[in-house]
Each structure stands twice: as structure tokens, then as C-alpha cells.
Amino acid sequence: MEVLPITPRGYCAGVTRAIQIAKETVMKYPNQKVYMLGMIVHNQHLVNAFSKLGIICLEDQSSTRLELLDQIAEGVVIITAHGASDAVFEKAKDKGLTIVDATCPDVEKTHDLVRNHVGNGDVIYIGKKNHPEAEGTVQLSNRVHLISKKEDLEALPELENVLITTQTTLSILDTKDLIEACLEKYPDAICETEICNATRIRQEAVLKLENIDTLFVVGDPSSNNATQLCRIGKDHGIPNTYLIQGPMELNEDMLKNANRVAITSGSSTPTKLTQAVIDCITSYAKENDFHQELIQIDSIL
Predict the structure, then answer these.
(1) Which numeric CATH code is attached to 2-11+198-300?
(2) What pTM, to 2 d.p., does this model score?
(3) 133 belongs to the catalytic site
(4) What is the pLDDT of residues 97-118, one digit of tens each?
């Protein structure tokens, strides 16, 4: 069996920055409650690690960031890497909360693009419904219109001076098709694709794979960038493609008939988890036996 770790893998710069900001916040405000408005990034291992540091993560798929703020009476609130709308910042300020902004610079770049355009036109935002990044961007203005599939275009109102932009963690293949559909309906639209480089180069690396029969994507099921990598692997024709959270989810059935195995990870996946998967599969390739190490949460940070 040949084992091929794909480069790049591990944290992107935005995730590394958000983690560092959160760690510094706990140290800076030792006598205050520190809340995180959602998952700092979509990885449960990281959420658990920050919970051990005393950060209270407020996450509810049925609640917006504005609604989650109602659970905080006082203290410090961390805006996650996914960003938030201006209304969230204003509400947190009105409640007297200390705001710590860990928004990914790529997301903030999209927000600036949208803010600059909505005074003169409409924005079609290609994104995933109910995703926190999409929520924060769409709430910037009633002139921002979310579409997740081609059928959503039919429900759009009359638009003018259209800008098309995207969530940063989408599939480059799916986005291409949706952009083409948007341009067919709005041929004069300006298009600013905002899929971040970390997402793009990971997806392109999977698309360049040849003669691979098994692909492991290490990531959380709630992570859009990890699930998109898995989808791209399947669409690329890799017959056995698995999304796993770590070495503890590996089993012999996944590998007993594998010849060429590739391993990648989402940009919010702890590097040590991905390396543990690589080590486990490499060990199996040499000895036909698993050495599944349980990673200590402390080592994740």
C-alpha cells in the first residue's frame, strides 16, 4: 500500500489567528466570563479544548448570532472566524459586552466588498443556508440575496447593478456552475469570487490526484470546507472517500483492499489529528495492524 499525505493540510492562517486570539482573550480577562458566539471554527475537538480553558461556547443551529447574544448578560464575547453582521456588533456593544473580534481576514474582505456595493446596487451571495459565515454576510443589508442552488435564482426580486460574490469555503466546482447560472440571468453583473486560497488550493490538490483508490479527509462533519473536500474527492472519481474526525474512526475494512491512499484535511482540522491518521495508516501499510493513538485535548491547542 502506498500512502500519500496531501499538501497543504492543517490549519489555515485564519484559523491559526482565531485560535491565538481566543487563547489570549482567556489570559487577558481571567476574572470575567468569556463567551464564544458559535464554534470558533467548525471542529468539535477545538471547541472541547477551549471549554477546558473556560470559554463558554454558545452554539444553536436554530438561533442566529443576534439571538445567541440574548444568552449573555455580561462579560466578554468572541466573534468567531466566520464573522458576524454589523447588527451583532452593535447589539453586543449596546449590552455593554467586551467584544473580541476573531473574524477571518478573508471573511472581513468579503464584508467590505458587500458594504461598498450595497449603496449602489444589489449583491447575489452564493453561500450555504444557515452557515454562520453566510448569515453574517447576508445580514449586512437587505440588498444581499443568498442563493444556494440554481432554483433560488427564480425567486429573486428585480435587481440592479448586480455584484456576485461567494462564501469563502465553498466547492470551486459547485460555485463555478452557480456563477455561470447567475451570469446567464444577469449578464452585466460584476463577479468577485471570494473562495479563500486555503480552501481553493486544498480542493485543487484533490483534483490533481491520479490513480488514487482511497481518500481520507480529516475534519469535522460540521465543517463546510472538510465536507466539500470529501464531495470533490467523490466527484473526482475516487471510489472510496471517507470523512473522518481522527484515527479513532479508522477501521480495517476501509483499508484492507486499498492500494494508493491519499490523506488530506479541512483548514480547521488540528494538525496533530491529521498526523495521527497518517501515522496510523502508515503503520497499517507496514504491519497490517492499527496503532490508534488517542490524542490528548491539551495537545490540540
Answers:
(1) 3.40.1010.20
(2) 0.87
(3) yes
(4) 999 999 999 999 999 999 999 9
